[in-house]
Design a protein that fits this description.
This protein is of the alpha+beta class. The protein contains seven helices and eight strands. Strand 3 (44-49) and strand 4 form a beta hairpin.
Length: 180
């Protein structure tokens, strides 16, 4: 992958989300990764990549891509760790309805193995009629020490909101850069 495409890829997945990535650079990255890019109605652009077709809105009049569009491009995030026992990097896509992990000794290798792993995973999902993205109910259980439970309950009462509303607001603040 050319250095320029590597910089665009890094900018797409940077936290906090960048709001000044040029759309032409994103399109060039898609093509470098093997995508077919096609013009659609209005300012829409179709991108077929790794067996999936996504439609994006080309920004105008500004050439910069807004944060919402950047978030929709980085649909498949992966967690990368180094495993000293096998002397390799290990990547695992998050938010999927199954496992799609990959290993490599270099960053370039990770990119290649990640693309292959995701492509195989998406193809298997399509063949089996399974939604690739994991769905979330909006409910989960949190275990906290009793003292913390007492403090957050008091904080919620002081603000005249439910404990659920207080926790939701805290989680939204904590993850705001990922939602943009």
């Amino acid at each position: 992958m050319r250095r320029k495409h590597g910089k665009t890829l890094a900018a797409l997945f940077a936290h906090p989300t960048s709001a000044n990535i040029k759309w032409r650079d994103i399109e060039a990255l898609f093509k470098e990764l093997g995508a077919t890019v096609s013009e659609r109605e209005g300012s829409r652009v179709g991108v077929e990549l790794f067996g999936e077709i996504r439609v994006f809105h080309r920004p105008h009049p500004s050439p910069d891509t807004d944060k919402g569009a950047v978030a929709s491009i980085r649909r498949y995030d992966a967690v990368i760790q180094y495993d000293p026992d096998i002397k390799m990097f290990r990547g695992e896509f998050i938010g999927l309805n199954g496992g799609a992990d990959f290993y490599a000794k270099s960053v370039d290798g990770l990119e290649k193995e990640g693309r292959t792993s995701l492509k195989v995973f998406l193809r298997m999902c399509k063949e089996k009629g399974i939604e690739p993205r994991r769905s979330f109910s909006g409910k989960f259980v949190v275990r906290v020490p009793p003292e913390l439970h007492e403090r957050v309950t008091e904080a919620a009462a002081a603000r005249r909101v439910s404990l659920n509303e207080l926790v939701k607001a805290a989680l939204e603040r904590e993850t705001a850069d990922r939602a943009a």
